[in-house]
Specification:
With about 180 residues, this protein is an alpha/beta fold. It is built from seven helices and six strands; from the N terminus they run βββαβααβααβαα.
Amino acid sequence: VVNELNSSVDVWELNDPNGQIECVQTLDMMPADFSDTRWAADITTIKPRCKYVIIQGGINDINTGRTLAQMQESVQSMIAKSIADGFDDYVLPNITPNSYCDGDSAKETLRLQYNAWLLATYPTKCKDIASVVADATVAKKLRTEYYNDGIHYGGAAKFAVATYLASVCGFVFESPTAY
């Protein structure tokens, strides 16, 4: 299984002793065909060893100001690439709660719009990982034990999401063979 993240490519550096970070690379700085080039280099080359792809999108896209249309286009492009590469199947997890959206109603609205579009457009492919990691009392927040950096779920949450996806995706795995 390949887990491909549909997100802006932002590279941050810690540039001062007070812990301030600086963005030194964004997707907007990359050539127009960067996503295609990256897919060809990272995903197409490992396809012979993989049957399925998880196309996971958007947390960083929301924070960097991408529009719903841009996020949709990116996901649709990756779906087309996965089909062209001959993957047996793909799934599309929705965007999880995060601190970007928690404190900004416009970003939270975009997250919810994207998730609604994903479910409406790809009802059998969309998987609700947000419910796995969301706080039970405040759905726009991550569960406390899954907080990590506030943006990306980590640790035990990754195991919970993987367990959930394994139970709902219908992927059929073969036992490894001896080398």
